[in-house]
Amino acid sequence: MLTEVTATRYITPLREGGSLPGIVEADDLGTYVMKFTGAGQGRKTLVAEVICGELGRRLGLRVPRLVAMELDPVIGLGEPDQEVQELLKASGGLNLGMDFLPGSIGFDPLAYEVGSGEAGAVVWFDALINNVDRSWRNPNMMVWHGDLWLIDHGATMIWHHNWPTAATASAKPYNASDHALARFRPDIAAAAAKLAPLVTEELLTEVTAQVPDVWLADEPGFDSTDALRRAYVDALLPRAATVHERIVLEAPTEDRPSQAPGWLKERLKPLPHPTKKAQQDGGEK
Q1: Where is this region: Disordered (predicted)?
Q2: I want to staple 149 with a disulfide (CB 3.0 to 4.6 A). Which of 28, 51, 62, 200 is the partner?
Q3: Residue-wise pLDDT tens digits, 82-96
Q4: Rounded to two decimals, what is the model's pTM?
């Protein structure tokens, strides 16, 4: 089970996140980014954060430490924002905290170079957990003390929103064409060779055990929290062995045609996409 702390002071909301997380202090003197059970995405977002965050850390990826954080809504009485007050009132009890990384900056692919090995490990991991929210539009990565850190895993394992179709959904390919690290020629084969053998039944059982029972209780179709934990293991374990064979890397999509003048389009032209560049090089030979 995650280490449990108690929130003692609400500092400020982080309005960049759709769920309105906040920075809080706790009774262990730590500062955390708190994600709330009362947010619109609900407790399954927190379950995904724990399973994927703890799994990523055990695979050697940098993920901020997670804690279970007890919240008394009374700490928000001095908050002037009505939306924040309502969120705190709806989130009494156990919530999720992740270590605040002071001085960290958002990942920018134009300012921070990532090696193909590290890029491959992150893309493979995101394929395993089916992370749909680490694209060039929203990287969900931070740079702290010169290192790359992975954050925000709430939009993963989307099959747990519809368990009857989980087996089919978890077997689908993973399209990494828009991944924030696709431009760095991720070495997915090397990542799979290194990481896939580490994803054992024992490791997944250990990771799912970190999720508080209160976030797993009363899930339709399951008679116990242990049965639900087992469902997560059953979805991830076979996927780890073969997902590298189903990672798609094609030309990235565009939100809309560029309206910039020709000279500016040339300056804004992205780096060659790894798959496309490899195809071109092969054709020239």
Answers
A1: 251-285
A2: 62
A3: 888 899 999 999 999
A4: 0.87
